[in-house]
Amino acid sequence: MTQDIRFGTDGWRGMIAEDFTFANVRRCAQGFARYLLDQGLRDAWVVVGYDKRFHSENFAAAVAEVLAGNGLRVLLTQEATPTPVISYAVVDKGAVAAVNITASHNPPTDNGFKVRDRHGGAMPPQVLKEIEARIPPTPQQVQRLPLKQAQEEGRVVLFDPKPAYMARIAKLLDLEPIRRAGLKVLVDPMWGNAAGWFPALLGGDATVVEEIHNVRNPIFPEMQRPEPIPPNVNVGLQETVRRGADVLVITDGDADRVGLGDEKGRFIDQLKVYALLAYYFLEVRGMRGPIVKTVSTTSLLFKLGEKYGVPVYETGVGFKYVAPKMLETKALLGGEESGGYAFGFHIPERDGILAGLFLLDMMVRLGRKPSELVDLLFREVGPTFYKRVDIPFRGPREPIEKRVQEARPERLAGVKVVRINTIDGYKFELEDGSWLLIRFSGTEPLLRVYAEATREDLLDPLIQAGLELAGVESPAEA
Predict the structure, then answer these.
(1) In the predicted model, what is the mean pLDDT of residues 330-358?
(2) Nearest CA to 66 among 20, 26, 31?
């Protein structure tokens, strides 16, 4: 029996050889080709790229064959390429869309099929459903043109998107002050696509850039997965202290997310990083424009929006919501809790490389180390503390959803509940500005319980309250 393919937050992901097979990848490509042809885009160019996971380059070649076989033209990256570089190539080359073979931060067993629009951004939910609806039920309905023949006919062209992206970065940010600053920067690309990029961008002067985990290794040793959060970043944090680095910059497997470690080997969570980026643009660079945030990221953005007179829009989780809202509102920034941040003057897509460079620029402009930047932020808008717990589940979601939906707590962790936000999941907003969010992941079989608190001692009680509302145990207890 042929398997149904369902697109989640960012496209489709699956376990390699179990459901993520060549046959199913070709079916996805056929569905995407049909969608593009139905928009009248025959003979249009589509960018196809891939990451460093097992067989990614071969899955990408399979996609190129199907797109070419359906009358489209393909620009195929000549090597594993960061997701933001692929997205920028869509704009730079005047393409109409992109397919990216990557499972981003998922475990090493997985791979994925991401789609991007003509802006280089994630496609909105209704478009994903239209693509999904066009996926043929059997591989026999897939049209293919063998890669060699497609190349000979000029329907598939290998290309290098790096020079255009490097030139773009140079227009968005003067890198010379960072190069001259004499920083010691440690970069952890998590065995992924950003390896070599920071040394290439920042090398050649007083600043020293060193890398760890910078070769291809699809089993991602020394981490559970290439996601820039603890415990995956612990080795990098230890190396920061051992090497005496000023900062640790971490990118996930496909380089669309960024993580940050301070000079003392402490992780700076994604919510603080987004607030730091907003402060950098609003205060340090004096820029203005709307901010788009997902429901799962920091409420400090509302405080910054009020302080600097810019609107802040909240969306569901995933760039399939963030990117369209950024385009609609002409936003300055867009971001989410997972460490993905986008810049409206660039492309409506997460860019872990550019975000990392902006954070380094903030350090140089203000003459402060990462821990000092956090202290500065807290003095401006107050402290925040964050925690997330992921609970794997098997079986139906409905009982958990029903329990949470029917919950009407008056207080959580002793603080009054003032609102229940249902944009995406169930977010219990508290009187003091703290919040608790319970929602299912859009990319993995996980229940996620998040909390942001104005006091550190509220965090664990809020998380425990969330687990009790959902009727589940924490992974340590299960």
Answers:
(1) 96
(2) 26
Give residue-wise pLDDT tens across range 236-293: 999 999 999 999 999 999 999 999 999 999 999 999 999 999 999 999 999 999 999 9
Hey, what are 466's tokens? 């969330």
pTM for the model stands at: 0.94
Mean pLDDT throughout 319-347? 94
In CATH terms, are 173-381 and 385-470 the same topology?
Answer: no
> Could you state, in order of their start, the residue ranges of all structural domains in the chain?
11-161, 173-381, 385-470
Architecture of domain 385-470: 2-Layer Sandwich (3.30)
SS3 183: coil
Nearest Cα residue to 370 out of 204, 250, 191? 250
Instruction: Report the CATH number of the 11-161 domain.
Output: 3.40.120.10
Tell me how far CA of residue 1 lies from CA of 8, 13, 52, 138, 146, in angstroms: 22, 19, 31, 9, 26
**Position 420, amino acid:** I
Q: Decide yes or no: CATH 3.40.120.10 for domain 173-381.
A: yes
Q: Helices 270-279 and 352-366 sit at what angle, rounded to 10 degrees?
A: 60
